[in-house]
Specification:
Length: 166
């Protein structure tokens, strides 16, 4: 199975393609014209000028053009119809990413034996809560020492304090 991140990227590319291909391909426009246009109308690309703060810009869309009146009827539904399934898929993929991240976080949390409130959720192998807490404190000290956050002398002193509580 593909990683979820890659699936999201592929889906995003498909979303763009679904939006842009009808603008670029006359064959695609002819195939989908019956969905959006009435009899006697053709589906054509419509370019509109848009004025913004920086100057002119252009917006492209689809319009049904009547052969009789040469009038355009803008088609906005194609964007929604084309993108809706992909947005639903994006939502499902995003939910899967969140579920997977949540499950990993719970696994990591469960691995932290001795954290307050977690001893009853984990198979402790017969250790008491105090022993689990002391074990966790020793691991934290060791991690701090290996990360060079405390000196060897400080590590030895604190370790001796923890062990004296046994």
């Amino acid at each position: 199975m593909l990683p979820l991140g890659l699936l999201l990227i592929i889906n995003f590319a498909l979303t763009l393609a679904v939006m842009l291909i009808p603008l670029a391909s006359a064959g695609v426009r002819n195939a989908i014209a019956p969905i959006f246009c009435q009899g006697g109308e053709t589906l054509e690309v419509r370019r509109a000028e848009v004025r913004d703060a920086e100057g002119d810009g252009y917006s492209y869309g689809l319009a049904c053009r009547s052969a009789e009146t040469q009038a355009d009827r803008e088609v906005t539904a194609w964007v929604f119809l084309a993108i809706s399934p992909l947005v639903i898929l994006d939502t499902l993929l995003l939910a899967a990413v969140i579920r997977r991240a949540t499950a990993r976080a719970r696994e990591q949390e469960a691995a932290l034996i001795g954290m307050p409130g977690q001893a009853n959720l984990i198979n402790t192998g017969g250790l008491t809560a105090q022993q689990i807490d002391l074990s966790a404190r020793l691991r934290e000290l060791q991690d701090a020492y290996h990360a060079r956050l405390i000196s060897r002398e400080e590590y030895d002193r604190r370790r001796a304090q923890v062990l004296s509580q046994l």
